[in-house]
Specification:
alpha+beta; 2 domains; 56% helix; five-stranded mixed β-sheet; Heat Shock Protein 90; 7 strands; elongated; 226 residues
């Protein structure tokens, strides 16, 4: 792979990370805004002279407390996954569980599907072996594939992410409503396909059925370097 393509992959990887963090930032603002609004409502209720026997105020207060607790749990979970996401880049290559990586990234992808009113469904295979590869680069590739698939789907439909294993290879399938068969180069671009090649992976589009199209990413486990 020449230096120019390596640079293109790196630039796209940085861009993907930036977009994911921008989406994360927007979600954090929303959660914190709701916490602030709920907290203000509780303050207003208390300033009105306490609850006394006012059942309506009591229910409003309980609702605000529940909203705060729910948003704090969601926010803490997102920060937990952010930590894992950020540390994926600590080492160029490492052993990791595919399902953990998918679940982690879907936390950040959810906002993009929500804006388009598209449901993400995860169907994660059981008992998958750990693989040795570049997890940060794989997360970039997954983001790009996800965004491209999302653009093909109309609101109200689902994008199903399926994980499995074929021999020593892991397989990630993006299943979307049936779309016209196109050349992968025209759909995903040379730079993304080069990034997949760098992972020692392949990308294929299955034959369309009446109901859906499958885009399959097959990634090999690389030899562990001593």
């Amino acid at each position: 792979m020449d230096a120019m393509m390596e640079n293109n992959i790196r630039q796209e990887q940085i861009e993907s990370f930036g977009r994911l963090m921008a989406g994360f930032s927007h979600d954090m603002k929303n959660h914190l805004g709701i916490i602030r609004e709920s907290n203000g409502l509780m303050g207003d209720i208390l300033e009105m002279g306490g609850l006394g026997e006012d059942e309506i105020s009591l229910q409003r207060l309980k609702k605000s407390i529940s909203a705060i607790e729910r948003r704090v749990v969601i926010t803490a979970n997102m920060f937990h996954h952010l930590s894992g996401f950020a540390h994926r880049a600590d080492a160029p290559y490492s052993s990791f569980q595919l399902n953990d990586l998918i679940s982690e990234e879907c936390i950040f992808l959810e906002r993009f599907s929500r804006l388009k009113q598209i449901e993400i469904v995860q169907e994660l295979g059981d008992g998958l072996l750990a693989i040795y590869n570049d997890p940060a680069l794989l997360q970039h590739v997954l983001y790009r594939l996800y965004i491209q698939c999302l653009e093909q789907i109309e609101s109200g439909h689902s994008l199903i992410i399926i994980t499995g294993q074929e021999g020593e290879n892991i397989v990630i399938t993006f299943r979307l409503p049936a779309t016209p068969q196109v050349e992968l180069e025209n759909w995903f671009g040379d730079t993304l396909l080069a990034a997949i090649e760098k992972l020692n992976g392949t990308l294929e589009q299955s034959e369309n059925t009446q109901d859906h199209t499958d885009v399959r990413l097959i990634i090999a486990s690389l030899p562990i370097e001593e």
